[in-house]
Amino acid sequence: MIKFTIVTCTFNAEHELQRTLDSVFHQSYADVEHLILDGLSSDRSVEMAQTYKQRSDEARTGHEVVVCSERDSGLYDAMNKGIARATGDYIVFLNAGDMFPSEATLEHIAHSIGDGEALPGVIYGDTDIVNDEGRFLRHRRLQPPAKLTWRSFRNGMLVCHQAFYALTTLAKDNPYNLNYRFSADVDWCIRVMKEAERRHLTLKNVDEVVVNYLDGGMTEKNHRASLRERFNVMRHHYGLPLTLIMHLWFVIRQFKKQA
Questions:
Q1: What is the pLDDT of residues 150-196, one digit of tens each?
Q2: Where would you tag: which of 94, 174, 242, 254 has the fewest CB atoms within 10 A of its CB?
Q3: How many Å apart are CA 69 and CA 11, to the nearest integer?
Q4: How far apart, in whole angstroms, are the C-alpha atoms of residue 6 and residue 132?
Q5: Local structure of 140: helix, strand or coil
Q6: How many CB atoms lie within 10 A of CB 136?
């Protein structure tokens, strides 16, 4: 039976956090480790997480909930702590405000792997965007391809970070690069996929929406700096000539959409 590690990193997230906790609590799949890593919040985030842990334990969901509140050096540092602590077969990052689209989402992901099938290096799916109240806004513009490789991300981040389930052994060998402040997730996904290819592991598309993603995250709030950083990530992985060509195409595509 596949075990999932869900990592939720929080900092003063009391407004968004409860619906994320409820979403994990109601997952019908039992073999789940939920790591809630808080960066010393001054609001009710830790209290809410501890109440959730008690609720989950008393309900005997089968979920193992761990709550930790300590100083970190930012979101990606907290994510690296999650990777280091993870004991599941797969790790996924579900931030405060993000939700599973149904109570059976993890069941569907687990059952997408057939009996006797080797564990894929990455399992991925589609994403819907929700607003600050958790209501559906739109389907994510960038759609995951049927056949994903690390080269696919030269066309943009085609798989949302929260819809990207990495084999934990790959994640532990490829922690987030803390030199990136806004685009370490893009770099991380590419490096995980590169490592999967090196180990001859497949990347599996679940062919359904696997996360409802909260609109307006850290990257969108720091859009310009994020774009510069993402350019550097792409240049590192795909080379300068191809990165320049792809960014020219991004500009043309955006211009056509606005015309």
A1: 999 999 899 999 999 999 999 999 999 999 999 999 999 999 999 99
A2: 254
A3: 9
A4: 21
A5: coil
A6: 11
